[in-house]
Amino acid sequence: ETGVTQTPRHLVMGMTNKKSLKCEQHLGHNAMYWYKQSAKKPLELMFVYSLEERVENNSVPSRFSPECPNSSHLFLHLHTLQPEDSALYLCASSQGIGLAGGYEQYFGPGTRLTVT
Amino acid sequence: GQQLNQSPQSMFIQEGEDVSMNCTSSSIFNTWLWYKQDPGEGPVLLIALYKAGELTSNGRLTAQFGITRKDSFLNISASIPSDVGIYFCAGRYNNNDMRFGAGTRLTVKP
Q: For residue A109, is the peptide bond before it cis, meaning its omega torsion is within 30 degrees of 0?
């Protein structure tokens, strides 16, 4: 148990559906992240939030829309996805953003998304 | 760009053997981290390295931050069946961004 929970753990959706992924961290951290993990590819950073403000958006298509209502919760809203968006979506949190010790990222278990 | 090359891609070893894996890059990183991911779970941090040349241990695991800041290795001594999983290196070069290797899949035969 890393203190980062994600729901749902599995999601199957059609290309015309709208769904949301939820992440909650119980570590008192100030930064949260969304990553995409595809088979046999490195983790890809999607979004970074620090103190509820988005500080990084790595050229992610607009069909992915993040929301961070407070420092403990992070959502990823999905709409009109493509089959190639099927992947494991991982949420992470850290004490802050920076290079110093103590700012390491802790990951949730992920949501396995399948787009049909 | 800050791409990481992690090797080997997979390893099949006998219980009790030592394991070594590494990550290299053409770019400099300021922090190196090693994670392990079990099936159906997210990556779990094993070791974090903050200074070039730093050598850090965590139980049977030892990792080093290369002196050139472009590489890192992870060693596992006396492997056991629960060491099975995918090991990822990660390098951080600025406040917001962290790059990951593609992973080393470790299989340990009892």
A: no
Could you tell me the pLDDT band of residue A42, with boundaries at 50, 70 and 90? confident
Distance between CA atoms of residues A42 and A45, nearest Å: 10
**Beta carbons of B96 and A101 less than 8 Å apart:** no
pLDDT at B18: 97
pLDDT in tens, B35-88: 999 988 999 999 999 999 999 999 999 999 999 999 999 999 999 999 999 999
Interchain contact, A90 vs B45, CB within 8 Å: no
Which amino acid makes up residue A53? E
- Is A99 part of the contact surface with chain B (CB cutoff 8 Å)? yes
DSSP-assigned letters across all residues of A57-100: E-S--TTEEEEEEETTEEEEEEES--GGG-EEEEEEEESSSSSS
Q: Are B79 and B86 in contact (CB under 8 A)?
A: no
pLDDT at residue A52, rounded to an integer: 84
Residue of A nearest to B6 (CA): A42
Return the residue of B nearest to A40 by Cα.
Answer: B102
Q: Quick check: B48 and A106 CB within 8 A?
A: no
CA distance A6 to B46: 21
Give the Cβ contact number of residue B25 at 10 Å. Answer: 24
The proportion of chain B whose per-residue pLDDT surpasses 90, expressed as a percent, equals 84
Our measurement of the distance from residue B79's CA atom to the centroid of its chain's CA atoms, rounded to an integer in Å, reads 15
